[in-house]
Write a structure and sequence with these properties.
By secondary structure, this protein is mostly helical. The chain is built from two helices and no strands.
Amino acid sequence: MSKTAVRPTADAKPVAELTYEEAFAELDGIVSALETEQRPLEEAMALFERGQALAKHCAELLDKAELKIRQLSGEEITQLAD
């Protein structure tokens, strides 16, 4: 899997507008960058913050997909476990 360029910039696409695949790829790149590269503290914190938002967005998209699958398969919809 190729890594995307990781830059915590103001011109980055808003997290809410990303598809699951885009968000996951960017998150993967952020994790790799934070694990392998030395970054100034402010840049590392910006990457971490973006990564947290991306992880939350991915989880929400997966929850929505799971709910839709349950609805389409006719399963009883129950509250997801915490």
